[in-house]
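Incident log, support desk, overnight shift.

02:14 A customer reports that sequence design results differ from what the structure should imply. Their input is reproduced verbatim below. On-call engineer (initials T.W.) acknowledged and began investigating.
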C-alpha cells in the first residue's frame, strides 16, 4: 500500500470485474427472475448503483413481495456471492492497480456492495494488497448517487480533491463522484448497455486507456474522448 501517496484513484467494483454485464445488474436480473419478473432498462436506470438494502426494499415494495425484507436480503446476498465467485478481474485490472501503486497513487474501491464482500473478492484475486481504501454500501448513510461514498473515500485518502480521480461503471456512481467534485471516467465497453453519461465524464472502453493518466503521461482531452464515443446515448 502507498501510505504517503498524494494522488488518489477510486474504482467502482463493477469497473474491475470482468463480465458482459455489470455485476449489480447481473445479480438484480437473477433476483428479479426468482420472482417471475424481468428487469428492464428503466429498472436498471432507477436502481443501478444503489446499496443492496435499498435496492431490495424498493423491489419488495414495487413488486408487492410477501417475504420479509431480511429473507429477501439473504437471497440477494447469496446471489451476489455466487456471481462474484464466478467472476475474475478484468484482464487489465491488475496492470492498472500496479501502475497506480508504483506511480504514487492512493488506491480505493468505492462500491454499493458490502465492504467485507468486496475485500474478500479482492483478496481472492490477489488485488487486496494494492488497495488502500474500501468504501462499501453499508459504510455510508446515503449511497450513490449522493456524494457521501466518494467524500468518505477522499477523506480517508488524505489527498486533495483536485488530485483524485474516480472510475465508474454506472450513472449513479458517476453522479456520486461528480457531486463529490472528482474528475470522473466512465467505463463503457462495447456490449454494455449505453448510459446517458453527464457531460464532464470522460469515457473509456478499457482500463488500459487510463495508463497514460496513471503513469503521468499526457491524456486526451474530454472533448476528444466525447468525439470518439458517439454511442454514449440516453437509455429509453
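02:41 Re-run completed on a clean worker. Output:
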Amino acid at each position: 500500500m502507498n501510505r504517503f501517496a498524494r494522488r488518489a484513484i477510486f474504482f467502482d467494483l463493477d469497473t474491475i470485474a470482468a463480465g458482459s454485464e455489470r455485476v449489480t445488474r447481473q445479480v438484480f436480473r437473477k433476483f428479479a427472475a426468482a420472482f417471475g419478473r424481468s428487469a428492464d432498462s428503466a429498472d436498471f436506470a432507477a436502481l443501478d448503483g444503489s446499496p443492496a438494502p435499498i435496492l431490495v426494499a424498493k423491489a419488495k415494495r414495487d413488486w408487492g413481495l410477501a417475504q420479509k425484507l431480511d429473507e429477501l436480503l439473504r437471497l440477494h446476498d447469496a446471489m451476489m456471492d455466487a456471481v462474484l465467485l464466478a467472476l475474475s478481474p478484468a484482464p487489465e485490472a491488475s496492470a492498472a492497480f500496479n501502475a497506480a501503486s508504483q506511480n504514487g497513487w492512493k488506491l480505493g474501491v468505492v462500491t454499493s456492495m458490502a465492504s467485507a464482500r468486496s475485500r474478500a473478492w479482492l483478496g481472492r484475486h490477489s488485488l487486496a494488497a494494492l488497495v488502500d481504501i474500501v468504501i462499501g454500501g453499508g459504510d455510508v448513510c446515503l449511497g450513490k448517487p449522493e456524494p457521501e461514498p466518494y467524500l468518505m473515500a477522499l477523506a480517508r485518502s488524505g489527498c486533495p480533491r483536485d488530485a483524485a480521480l474516480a472510475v465508474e461503471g454506472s450513472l449513479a456512481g458517476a453522479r456520486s463522484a461528480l457531486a463529490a467534485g472528482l474528475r470522473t471516467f466512465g467505463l463503457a465497453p462495447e456490449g454494455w448497455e449505453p448510459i446517458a453519461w453527464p457531460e464532464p465524464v470522460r469515457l473509456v472502453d478499457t482500463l488500459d486507456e487510463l495508463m497514460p493518466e496513471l503513469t503521468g503521461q499526457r491524456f486526451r482531452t474530454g472533448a476528444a474522448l466525447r468525439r470518439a464515443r458517439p454511442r454514449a446515448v440516453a437509455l429509453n
